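JOB MANIFEST
job_type = single_chain_structure
chain_count = 1
residues = 118
[input]
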Amino acid sequence: MDSAAGPDWNADTDFDVRLQDVPLNNRRPDVTVYRADTIDVTPTRPEHVLLVVEVVSPGSETTDRIVKADQYARAGIQFYWRRLAAVAQDAELAFDGFGVGEVGEGTDAGSRTAYSKP
């Protein structure tokens, strides 16, 4: 993801995002794409984040689909993708989520897009 993002954006795992200060709400998405010039801001802030990705497993489905989607949208994060972990290995990679902005077409929360495996 780093190479696709270019020099202006970083993609990292194990990276905290501060969604709000009061009450305190930090999340650690599976992948965070954020502005490269804010690498020293920890935890990073939503205004520095372009995309968060969560891998949905049966135990995290409700949290990832409902709670986190709402929290990320309210915090102003432009793109939220959920990688559906239950997809068969030979199937298409399936993502769903939401997006607003200039990258591609915006989608509403809960929509699903499938991407063919390379």
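[summary]
The radius of gyration is 14 Å.
The longest helix spans residues 61-75.
exit_status = 0
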